[in-house]
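Dear colleagues,

As part of the handover before I leave the project, I'm documenting each prediction I ran so the next person doesn't have to rerun anything. This entry is a single chain, and its sequence is reproduced below.
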Amino acid sequence: MSLVVSAGLATACTSETGGAASPAPGTSASTGTSQADPEVPKVTQPPLDAGKYAADTCGLLPQDLLASLKYTDAGEYHPAGNTPLTAAGPSCSWKIKGEGIGLQVILGTGNRDNGVGGLAGTYAAYRQKKLVRFLEPAPAVEGYPAVYAGVQDERSRGTCAMDVGIADDLSFSVQAQGYQGQDDSCAAAAQAAAGVVKTLKGA
C-alpha cells in the first residue's frame, strides 16, 4: 500500500491501488500512537529522512534493481495531492509492457503531515476496518519493521502490498501486482522495499 502503498482512520483511506491502502488525512490519530500501542512495531534503527525524494519518488529505486526485476521503462511519478489516490504522499509506478506486471512505491509524507503517518497509521486504519482490512506482520526490511496490509489479502493472486516504517511517523508502501502468486509478488515487493531503504540510507 505502501505503499502502497502502501498504505482512513476515522472516515476513509487516501490510497487504494489493488491491495494497497493508506490512511486518510484529517483524522484524530497522532504520531505518538506507535509509542502508546504495544502492537505497532517499533522503529529501532535510526529514522530515515525521505524529504529529498518527495519530488523524485522514482529515484528511490536504483536502475540496477529495477532491471533485475525486469522493469526497463522509466517510472511514472505522481505528486502528492488532494485526491484519494494522491493524499497519502508522492508515488512512482513501473510496468512491464505486455505482461500485466507492475510495481508501485508510495512515500507516506502526506500521511505524516496530516498526523496519521508511520505504521501507527496503518494499524489504526486496520482497527477501524476502513480500507485496511488485512494486516499481517512481515519480515523486517534492512532492520526496519514491515507489515503486509491492504483492502484484502491478495497475495495468493499475485499482488503483494507492504508498508515499511522508517520513522515513528513515516512509512512507505510497496505493491507488486500481476505476478504468478504469493512467492513471486512478495519477493518482488521485498526486494523493492530493501532497495528503497538502501537508497534512503545513502541519501
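The CA atoms of residues 139 and 198 lie 16 Å apart. The first strand starts at residue 13 and ends at 17.

All the best with the project,
I.
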